[in-house]
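Regression test attached.
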Amino acid sequence: MAILQSPAGKKTAWTLVDIFVIVYALFPVLWILSLSLKSSETLADKSFFPTDISFEHYETIFSADVSLFIRPLINSIGISVIATLIAVVFGTMAAYAIARLDFPGKRALVGVSLLIAMFPQISLISPLFEMERALGLFDTWPGLILPFVTFALPLAIYTLSAFFREIPWELEKAAKMDGATPGQAFRKVIAPLAAPGVFTTAILVFIFCWNDFLFAISLTSTENARTVPAALAFFTGASQFETPTGSLSAAAVIITIPIIVFVLFFQRRIVAGLTSGAVKG
Amino acid sequence: MTTQGPNPAETAAGSTAVAEPAEDAKRGNGKKNGKSALSEGKRAERRLAWLLCAPAVIVMVAVTAWPIIYSLWLSLQRYDLRFPDDTEFVGLDNYVAVLSSGYWWTAFGVTLAITVVSVAIELVLGMVLALVMHRALVGRGLVRTVSLIPYGIVTVVAAFSWYFAWDQVYGYFTGPDDAPLTQTIPSLLIIVLAEVWKTTPFMALLLMAGLALVPDDLLKAAAMDGANAWQRFTKVMLPVMKPAILVALLFRTLDAFRIFDNIFVLTKGQNDTSSVSMITYNNLIKGLNLGIGATMSVLIFISVAIIAFVFIKLFGTAAPGSDTEGRR
């Protein structure tokens, strides 16, 4: 931007900006991490960093009754993974049609998925609550997977069709000219080109499902299907009378780990996925 | 939708007889290749497209369209799960009850206030962050990486972190005597802060996509002509970015309007800090009053539709999904 400044001054300025952004982004994360590492005695000392590091809260949540944390963690992983797989498969099919084929109703489909992306989810809680109770889906895995897939689909369709539109499809024809069977052309040429987009979409969809709170808290009532974000709202300490702050923080840190891993390893892809899907539509 | 010329599939199907069999075989439907074709190929293409879209459409419609109709039906009944025998059709009584209730309007005002204030702050901060992510000379990758943490983190986790930060016993922000989360205005400010922290990076990413569309030559030319940084920003960058800004605003406004997680954790809606989603939840899941809950659901749906309509009027042809979108 500012062309006239000295290179060294610019570097320092940008470094300061970087530091500011890093502090901004990490502040709450570090605080919850710090709380989870404080021992019960120092939990209320109000210091930002723990004075002594203790893993007692982590031991608590893993040694307590499974319904406290372990079962919700399994639910979270299972439900999010299954919902992601379904949403990505369905999304890939629809996005391929949108990017590659000509058919009436294409714009309607894009419009509908846009509408659903902005849909107030709370509006569905009453009817879904009632319908799932009638169908026996209330408080089950499928009962959560269904709304997760629904609201993940627009995201999947948008991101994937943006990626698919960038794929040089002529390569497929070229491969066939060179004697490849359609199956080979797909496996050797198209699949490797499409894989990064599909993978990126899967990450975004997984983050979305992992994050959900409203459906998880409204459509479950026991540890049968309750995911971790919903379980956190009902957290208790090792005993009913102990404050759950420490163990709650430990649980919060554990479900943040996958997010941090994704962000660290796939930063570029996530940025590409979010920007291409949202703006080029 | 198509931004780069004619649809490749269309050309393949229409132009050459050579491409036809390959296309059909790839679709794997084993159909005899109609040489007479154009229409046959077209029809096959449509059928394939509909087949491919069917699962997604069926799920989306089954989980949204049908329930919203059912919601309308529920909203016209007196239906309280605690008194299931007392269920009857009451017409618009529920709407009268909700719309004449002070609780509803307080929640509505709170929701609107949170939406407007947080989206406004996010737009400014997001723009700054987008410029940083786009232009940083030092540590651009690092900045982008850490910015994704607020985006990716579970909202409830972040909300608990803020909650404990302002908690009377554990918080490093509070003295022994202050409990900001028990007072209305401080609570609302903390809710806005939590919301802004979490979603600014998302806003910034959407804006960054718009920034990438600003041609560098144009900026250099403007600089040559003596435009200062602020003029280049307002006169060159903003106009080019307008579609991206509107998309980002639309997404975030509708998202902010349905705020729930942060309020649930931070205040549970006490001291007049409930959003519309929060009181709907309370009536429904805590109060088990399906009639009133459904009525509020319908009212929220209508509010969101109105907001979306206003934005789409503003968009004009730049709306996502329209044919010209993405072109400049």
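Expected vs. actual: identical. Chain A touches chain B through 110 residues (CB under 8 Å).
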